[in-house]
Amino acid sequence: MKPGSGVKYSGQLKMHWTWNVYLALTLFGLAAGLFFVDRRAGLICLLFACGYYCIVLLIYFYYRPKIFQSMIGFASRYKEIQAEILREMEIPTAIVDQEGYVLWMNRPLCSLTKKTERYSKTIDTIFPYLTRPVFPMNSDAKDIDLEYEQKHFRAHIQKVMMDDVMDQSMITRQAGEQENDSREAPAQSRYPEKQRRYPEKQRRSWIYIVYLIDETELSKLRRENREEKPVVAMVYLDNYEEAMDNVDEVHSSLMNVLIDREINKYSLAHHALSKKLEKDKYLLVMNQKSLGGLEEDHFSLLEEVKTVNIGNDTVMTISIGIGVGGDDYNQNYEYARASIEMALARGGDQAVLNRDGQMKFYGGKSHSSERHTRVKARVKAQAMREIMESKERVLTMGHKITDMDSLGAAVGIYRAAKTLGKPAWIVIGEDSSSIRNWLQMLRESRDYAEDIFISHEKAVEICDDNTVLVVVDTARKTMVECEELLQKTKTIVVLDHHRQTTEQIQNAALSYIEPGASSASEMVSEILQYFEENVRLKSLEADCLYAGILIDTNNFSTKTGSRTFEAAAYLRRAGADIIRVRKALRDDMDSYKARAEAVRHAEIFMDRYAISILPGEGLESPTVVGAQAANELLNIVGVTASFVVTNYSGKVYISARAIDEVNVQIIMERLGGGGHMNSAGAQMQDVTEEEAVIRVKEILRTMSEAHEI
Asked: What value does the mean pLDDT take over residues 143-154?
């Protein structure tokens, strides 16, 4: 058989020959038209058309084998040139099948990986990042960053459908079939096991082309550019006035010099520029590379400043606020200001890194210094009075699952509002056993209206722009008793003694955050003394406030300062009865037994942490009992922190307590919680109590290894 016999053209070539035949046939139509005009002219045109058509057919059949041979030759040469271009292309390239097996590699990739062109294993044996799940399935392309031989590459993976490739590459059907045969023959010889593994249709569905683009130099430039971006930091001395009050003038000057020396030495060691703004404030400017060094040593300046001692009784502590990620120095400065405010609100002695609005905390191991002056409490009391006088009514609420401290503070705010002649209510959700007796006593007292406590629904109806909403014992918007009320009024007052987190109530008209206070009841007791001269607490109200302080200080044994006892003395003068409070705070037998069981089954972890699970079945308020059990565990010798886990209403609650060596607040923040340095907690969903214990252990181990606790 002659070459080209049986060839059937397709595509553009078929259209080319078809139109030649059609155009030749138009001559017969012309001859027919002329025949009706002039028979002789029509006959001549018909003879010419027949001759022309015969010549076209002869040329077609004569040159068809030659055209076919030329096409095959061109295709072969084109294929060789194309293959050579692909082999020599500078970008390392590989073709892999659907399962990730390498079908072909060009020479640069072979040179990079030290493999031959016949390498046929999966590509993840060379690049572990390029596993089958990362290849694009629903898209045509995907980029993946990977490291190889200390170089950084961007792997661009292109998905190519084989049916489209075959349709576009075939010039003739027969040539296409021969080309497929020539392609499949070596593939079958090279990968016989893959031919048997995959059906014909699956093998031809699609392939992946992987381009490795070397971005080592680009990554280096990006890293250098990122490291040179500006960073602004602010350093405040937390207790400068208190520390200086205990030394004479000569030693105070020496202390200033030593502190300046520590800060300047630390700044120079990390290539930062420091400038003293005031006697207790510093400004630092650096780049992100220097900031990386500060993060690596966990801001050791926090501990180095504490070593400055010239006989002073008070240890100096500092707070650091860092702003990074802004568009310019001004924006980073605003980030730094927000960071330093957060650090001070959390009690100081820590660094807060504000990276483009996201805050990260370091340090915070020491107790918040107690404020000996009451100036701040007096200023806040006067500001709150002015706010209440400007509105028609007052609503107050605490946090979810109201405890005694939250109730006592709310009752104190209620009395302040009534002193101004304002209608006031306390928002209470679910009654817990820890406050039920107190709620009953307040409802039954003739000194209060029957609706002193209202539900969430009633509070939402009452609240409007002429309402002052006072939030006590929490500053987290997701932890308040009724979060909807925060959207109903713009006049919000926040009173809290916990260290703050980023999840705080925004745009409060007045925010009084005092981490050095023992309880919210203590803060409210101080405010009442400066709120109005004729504030007269009822004895039951004084009992509530006193009980709140008593519970949060664990009978005045933790977080207790001179101002705590001063607040307690004020409440005693107002009519608080210690015996009456003690009777109201007694536990029932079931709670006492559950607490004893939690203590009995406690596990000592890492020789210093007590961890236990409280059996909450049959208990009305297992979270309160869990907190009491955590306090009991601290009485064991060698225990520096305790963690009690209990299940309540479908959630797992963790109560964490410490005395002075461990900051349980930063531990609970890892679980999404918070609180005070030696009294904190967290809530977890979709986990069991055992899983929560495992999570606590992991955090304790990780933070201990990083020397964060």
From this structure: 86
Query: Do residues 116 and 104 touch, judged by C-beta distance below 8 A?
Result: no
Does domain 93-219 fall under CATH 3.30.450? My reply is: yes
In this predicted model, what pLDDT tens digit does every residue of 571-605 receive, in sequence order?
999 989 888 888 888 878 888 888 899 999 999 99
Tell me, what DSSP letter sits at residue 497?
A: -
Let me know: does 106 contact 89? Beta carbons within 8 Å.
yes
Closest CA to 497 of 325, 276, 347, 312: 347
Q: What angle do CA 314, 304, 698 make, to 5 degrees?
A: 100
What is the full DSSP assignment across 682-703?
A: EEE-S--HHHHHHHHHHHHHHH
| Topology alike, domains 228-363 and 596-705 | no
CB 329 within 8 A of CB 230: yes
State the DSSP H helix or E strand holding residue 350, giving kind and residue range, or none if neither: strand 350-355
- Give me the residue spans of the domains in the chain: 11-87, 93-219, 228-363, 375-584, 596-705
Q: What does DSSP say about strands 393-397 and 467-472: parallel, antiparallel, or unpaired?
A: parallel
Distance CA 688, CA 411 (A): 36
Give one DSSP letter per residue of 234-278, joined into a string. Answer: EEEETTHHHHHHTS-HHHHHHHHHHHHHHHHHHHHHTT-EEEEEE
Q: What angle do CA 538, 539, 541 make, to 5 degrees?
A: 65
Domain 596-705 fold: Diaminopimelate Epimerase; Chain A, domain 1 (3.10.310)
CATH architecture of 228-363: 2-Layer Sandwich (3.30)
76/98 Cα distance (integer angstroms):
27
375-584 folds as: inorganic pyrophosphatase (n-terminal core) (3.90.1640)
Backbone angles phi and psi of 206, in degrees to 5: -160, 165
The C-alpha atoms of residue 19 and residue 197 are separated, in whole angstroms, by 46
User: pLDDT tier at 168 (50, 70, 90 boundaries)?
Assistant: very low
- At residue 173 the predicted structure's pLDDT band, cuts being 50, 70 and 90, is very low
Contact 515, 368 (CB under 8 A): yes
